[in-house]
Amino acid sequence: MSQEPNLFSDGPDQETPGPGFAGSSGASSGRALDPLAVRMRPRTLDEVVGQEHLTFAGSPLNQLVEASGGDRAGASSVILWGPPGVGKTTLAHVISHAPGRTFVELSAITAGVKDVRQVIESARREREMHGRTTVLFLDEIHRFSKAQQDALLPAVENRLVVLVAATTENPSFSVISPLLSRSLMLTLRPLDDEAVGNLLDRAVESDRGLAGQFTLTEEARNFIVRIAGADARRSLTVLEAAAGIAAAQSEEAGDEPIEITESACAEASSETVLRYDKNGDQHYDVVSAFIKSIRGSDVDAALHYLARMIVAGEDPRFIARRVVISAAEDIGMADPQALPIAVAASTAVQNIGMPEGRIPLAEAVTYLALAPKSNASYRALDAAIADVKNGLAGEVPMHLRDAHYPGAKELGHGEGYKYSHDYPHGVADQEYLPESLRGKRYYSPTGNGMERSMAERLENLRRLLRP
């Protein structure tokens, strides 16, 4: 197993002058050809931004970084969970800088059990022969199968290796419990605008970055912060591309810095990368916010989350199903037209597909968000289901039983049944519930929308049914 080179080892080649553009002082340096995001990657915890809740003095992460190879007390394995571009790989490399460490990097996309076992065997030799601790950085651990994760357990448990695993998916669902219990789970937060802005400022001035050869206008800075979507890597990628465009378009000569404008940044970037995993937390978080916004009657928020799902490529049939459920669950009898409109939108999506399907979806979501709300119908059903499950079903009253088959009348089925249409208002005064549930009330209409008028009708009906 060949060990991945540690791009952040201490050494003279670490300093990279210039941004690496043609004509810059760093153009001839091999390190200058590395992407800006790689060159600007923090080497110490002090350089890490946006994760202060993990990097403070005395924190588990800080202890892990400061522990020497022989200090096994501080060598706990960690699982870094967070969205892309917030510093998971960076923290792994910072951890590798501790004295007496051998750093090995694997990707769960390409590595298998054989690769893991080779790393463990090499780690055993490193510890026995040189007293060095091996740090294994495993990127995208959620892609490892249960068998592959099981192979790591013995080495993690006896601290033969310090596992630093990174994942964008909730480890509670993607990492096996024995591995979770042997590791610290550290949650990285999305970077706020200030953190991304600080990274941009540092990259413009640093000798490892653009080395002061460029200036970034306030408008350009704000544009990159907005377009980056809390992703540090993306922000630096856009900055580097914009610097290249600005350099190519610049007519300036001499030592004056080249100005990077908002237009250059716009040319350098495509559409904003939307953080949305159709099989992970973002899928559930966004659709949850979508439904709750409809329920909360905030049409603007509901349309925002609808747009996020559409842009992210969510299955429109899934969205349509959620809209139908929302109509029945949250609007109900307060506006009985909500459900037909939602069903019509669902049918339209299936018939015409996307992108045109977004139009009936938008109409349905707007209608549902603005409609009066009531969950009285489904709450009534849930209460009835609870009674049935608790044994409160009771016998069907004799007068309501089927009397059409031979011998039914001899059993008393249908005897005394009152035909509703023979009575005033089409309502006969008879009991319909089982005897054990006589007088039970499940449905309690709200005062919202059409249910306001239904409440009075319901009381009149109940008086006629049970005088």
Key terms:
467 residues; alpha/beta; Rossmann fold; Zinc Finger, Delta Prime, domain 3; 4 domains; five-stranded parallel β-sheet; two-stranded parallel ribbon; 7 strands; ATP-binding
Question: What does the secondary structure layout of this molecule look like, with pairings?
Answer:
Layout: H1 36-39, H2 52-55, H3 60-66, E1 77-81, H4 88-96, E2 101-107, H5 113-130, E3 133-139, H6 146-157, E4 161-167, H7 171-174, H8 177-181, E5 183-187, H9 193-205, E6 214-216, H10 218-228, H11 232-249, E7 258-260, H12 262-268, H13 281-295, H14 299-311, H15 316-331, H16 338-352, H17 358-370, H18 376-389, H19 451-465
Parallel strand pairs: 1-4, 1-5, 2-3, 3-4, 6-7
Major beta sheet, strand line-up: 2-3-4-1-5
Question: Could you say which structural class the secondary elements and strand pairing correspond to?
Answer: alpha/beta
Number of helices in the DSSP assignment = 19
Low-confidence stretches: 1-30, 69-73
Order of helices and strands: HHHEHEHEHEHHEHEHHEHHHHHHHH
CATH class of the largest domain: Alpha Beta
CATH 4th-level superfamily of the largest domain:
P-loop containing nucleotide triphosphate hydrolases
Would you tell me which CATH topology of the largest domain applies? Rossmann fold
How many strands, what sense, and barrel or not for the largest sheet? Answer: 5 strands, parallel
End-to-end Cα distance, whole Å, is 86 Å
Number of strands: 7
Which CATH architecture of the largest domain would you pick? 3-Layer(aba) Sandwich
Helix content: 40-55%
Protein name: Putative ATPase
Keywords: ATP-binding, Nucleotide-binding
Biased composition (Low complexity): 17-30
Region (Disordered): 1-30
